[in-house]
Write a structure and sequence with these properties.
The chain is α+β, with helices and mostly antiparallel strands. The protein contains 7 helices and 5 strands, in the order H-E-E-H-H-H-H-H-E-H-E-E. A hairpin with a 2-residue loop joins strand 4 and strand 5. The N and C termini lie far apart (32 Å).
């Protein structure tokens, strides 16, 4: 899968993650034991792996980290909450997620409960716009 397909196009100041492509790449990935641990306990991977020192994380670095935390073994809501957590850790407070289908209000509520911090989620058909308020950093 090409870099363009996987991630994340940068549109002005916003990154757009293609969620379907991440799931597809996750299915094809050959998992090591450490990758499997990170997939089950992503917070472990997020805390122990190097984080970006600059405010602007690179596209490639984001793709690599996202592939470590996205899993077909958990719900879409959990995966999206993990992406939001990753973005927050990389000091990205506004980004979009291209979804294969629009989410229900119940799914949006589940994402907010899973993330456990204030987050603004706006849906435009199958595009989820995420905005993390500054005070949550």
């Amino acid at each position: 899968m090409s870099d363009k397909e996987l991630a994340s196009a940068i549109y002005s100041d916003r990154i757009c993650f293609n969620y379907s492509d991440f799931l597809s790449a996750s299915c094809k990935k050959r998992w090591s034991f450490v990758d499997a641990i990170y997939g089950v306990l992503p917070i472990f991977g997020m805390v122990t792996r190097k984080s970006a020192h600059s405010l602007q994380a690179t596209d490639e670095h984001l793709k690599e980290l996202a592939l470590q935390i996205i899993s077909t073994q958990v719900s879409d809501e959990i995966n999206i909450a993990r992406l939001i957590t990753l973005a927050e850790q990389q000091h990205i407070n506004r980004f979009d997620i291209q979804l294969p289908y629009p989410l229900s209000e119940q799914q949006l509520d589940s994402i907010q409960q899973e993330y456990r911090k204030p987050v603004d989620l706006t849906q435009q058909v199958d595009l989820l716009c995420v905005s993390i308020p500054e005070q949550s950093h």
